[in-house]
Amino acid sequence: MSAQKKFVKFFSQYAVVIIFVMITVAAIPPSGLSIKYILQEIITRLGRNSFLVLALLLPIYAGMGLNFGMTLGAMAGQVGLIFAVNFGISNWHGLLFALLVGLPISVFLGWICGLVMNRAKGREMVTGYILAFFINGIYQFFVMYMLGSVIPMGNRAIVLSRGYGIRNTLNLESVRQSLDNILVLRVGGYAVPVVTFIIIALLCIFIVWFKKTKLGQDMRAVGQDMVVAEAAGIPVEKTRIIAIIISTVLACAGQIIFLQNMGNLATYNAHDQTGFFAVAAILVGGASVTHASIANVFIGVTLLHSMFVVSPLAGQKLFGSAMIGEYFRQFIGYGVIALSLVLYAWRTRKAAADARLGLRGGTNGSTKVSAVKNGANGAAGNGGQA
Amino acid sequence: MNGTTKTRRLAIRGGLLVIYVLLMVLMIMTGRRHTILIDNKDAADGSYSAINGMEVAIDRQESSEYYPGDRDKAMVQGQTHKIKVTIFDDNKTIEKEFKVPLWSDVMIISVPKLIAGVEPWIEPFTMAEQIQEAQESGPPAGETSFQSIGPAQPMEVEQVPPTP
């Protein structure tokens, strides 16, 4: 392979990461922020967001693409937190209670999501996205009407003045940073929330272990080729449902970790952007619709959030308005997802074209093999192309 | 699957469900937060009087100083707690254990009652009850009241000449 081809291949594979690193590094000097401040922010945001982003891995392994349906899990976590605040349960007890309440809801929602996605094979991403809108409607109805009217709420402070429905913003003061503050390690002026990172590390170990189990191997097989997996006796649909259920449950826990760090809950729209930012983070980290690893999660969260930290101030200094930086944030998030999907589609088409060319004997053997391999991924319709 | 396996599986699932529910109940019992009002006021009937000066600490929380008429609050989690009172006059320290009912959000501890041995020195506190009690006992002497007493009197209005 010529050097130019190698460069094109490398750039197409890591284009999102390279562009992101360039933008972030360029935005640091005009932002005027110190490296120490940026590092502390990144540590905090790693603890806050990594769990949510890790929830995306299993559906990718199972060939279901980026699980925008994780929003369902986030909603379940929020319902759990609403009940924890209603009962006045504070500290980590409140978080565990919220998880216990959210867990069955997220399993149920994940099961529904899995069933729907099994009927929309090859279109999982867009299906998950629209399904999240649908479930959002039910969530709004539940929180805005059912809570306080059908389900009694003892804590009048969180109920709207009309007597039912939850207030727009919920103060999570009773559970605020209760997980982060269990053990804080102070090293060189940096505060590290140890317990949060231990939980994230445990999840990473679980994912590594899970990939080696029978179910994990089945997921990989289903992700590679559903037809072959079915022929090999793997229950494809059941495996896919399990992948989505685990992802939804992890999203539930991730949203609870996220919100305890934030300290307040925007009742009606906190979950709106959950899937979107998690997906953007994993893509920025170098993952694609079909391939992702734990490393992609941490690289992505670090890069995306360092950009989030510097962009408002860089926007303020460069254009005289911090709002420009805020818009930039949104633009970059959607832009990254779009670019990544375009690159994925381009790579799949190129691989198929190379495979055709290879069959005609117009290219070397190595290209032929890799092209056929990539083509199999794309052609099987497991990529979850939106 | 034979009957025994099915029964065992059902029993295990049922057991797990019970553990799940028990865990939730445990979280409510150990994690529920209550507000404790610490009061240092005279009794209305004069049966006990406020402590001249004292330091009060709940559990391992930071202690606070109280003088006659003071009232402050402390937040506690769970149901069983300790109160430690150190009286400045004779440097006497009193420690008592108390329980907060699970569904009570706010409790009031009257320290003068506790020192005098008057029961109950810890009671549930509700704003509505306090307002009702205050209304029933009438306005305290020497304080401004916005309630009208007796028939309304015509107000004297100063006549001001019309301005040109």
Automatic annotation (TrEMBL), chain A:
It is found in: Cell membrane. It is a multi-pass membrane protein. Its main location: membrane. The keyword Ligase does not apply. GO terms for molecular function: transmembrane transporter activity. The chain crosses the membrane at residues 14-39, 51-75, 95-117, 129-151, 190-210, 241-262, 274-290, 297-315, 327-346. GO terms for cellular component: plasma membrane. Keywords: Cell membrane, Membrane, Transmembrane, Transmembrane helix. Pfam families: BPD_transp_2. This is ABC-type transporter, integral membrane subunit. It comes from uncultured spirochete.
UniProtKB/TrEMBL annotation, chain B:
Pfam families: DUF6672. Residues 131-164 are annotated as: Disordered. The keyword Transmembrane helix applies. Keywords: Membrane, Transmembrane, Transmembrane helix. The keyword Transmembrane helix applies. The chain crosses the membrane at residues 12-31. This is Uncharacterized protein. It comes from uncultured spirochete.
